[in-house]
Amino acid sequence: RAEAERAEAERAEAERAEAERAEAERAEAERAEAERAEAARTEAARTEAARTEAARTEAAPTEAAPTEAAPTEAARVDGSVEALGVNIPSWAGEQFNALIGVVNKISLAIPSTAVSGELEFCNELKKVSGQPEWVLGLKMTGKDFVAVVDLGHLLLNQGPRDIAARPYKKIILLANSRWGIALDSVSAETEILSATIKWRDSTRIQQWLRGFESSRQLAIVDPAKMFVKDK
Predict the structure, then answer these.
(1) How crowded is residue 118: how many other Cβ atoms within 10 Å of its Cβ?
(2) Segment holding 185, helix H or strand E
(3) Looking at the predicted structure, is the pLDDT value of residue 192 above 80?
(4) N or C: which end of the chain has fewer CB within 10 A?
């Protein structure tokens, strides 16, 4: 029995020694793998830094190019504007800011200088007898009022809109007047280059339509001519 116990103790000791050796080998392998991974990360970071620096150095001359080319582009725009001549309205110049209003999926560019404000549309408009059919009614603004215009009916030869079924969303106020234009939506102010617009020749038909900007499909509105009848 004593011999058996001794043999069992020796076997257990051998197993413990083997386990410790295996654990030591595993720890050494993990340490070596960690060192290899760290070396790989360091090399990758060095390579990326070198690539970024090379790209920055190579791009530096290109970044300066637009500044040198700017006078040429400005000269081209000036030449185009000058070539278009008298068809450009005084408020346009070489470029102008405009609000883009949408009516029945048609986009209209209205010069910002002609706009004094913006209101939410509501159906509570006061009807006044004797007004043209394109006047939807009067909207009270404090102690004052504006006459709200159905722009699709006035300018685009579309029938009167049933605002109870399809209400507009916005009203923009025309400066120095008591007119408000009803719109489905109004975008943020945007800049338009006159050279990108195909300006219309003088015409007695649709005088409000001064030109067309094809890239954004914008009809350019001259607010001063909105209420002028065709001749």
Answers:
(1) 14
(2) strand 185-186
(3) yes
(4) N
Separation of CA 11 from chain center = 79
* Residue matched to tokens 């020694």: 17
DSSP at 231: -
For the chain, the average pLDDT equals 77
Mean pLDDT of 33-49: 56
Tokens encoding 122 = 């509501």
The residue with tokens 């209101």 is 119
Angle at 188 between CA 162 and CA 138, to 5 degrees: 35
Residue 208: how many other CB atoms lie within 10 Å? 19
Q: Angle CA(207)–CA(106)–CA(178) in degrees, nearest 5?
A: 60
pLDDT (tens digit per residue) in 117-132: 999 998 888 888 888 8
Q: What are phi and psi of 126, to 5 degrees?
A: -85, 120
Helix (H) / strand (E) containing 117: strand 115-120
CA separation for the pair 149, 161 (Å, rounded): 11
Task: Give the C-alpha separation, 123 to 145, whole Å.
Answer: 15
* Per-domain residue ranges of the chain: 1-53, 95-225
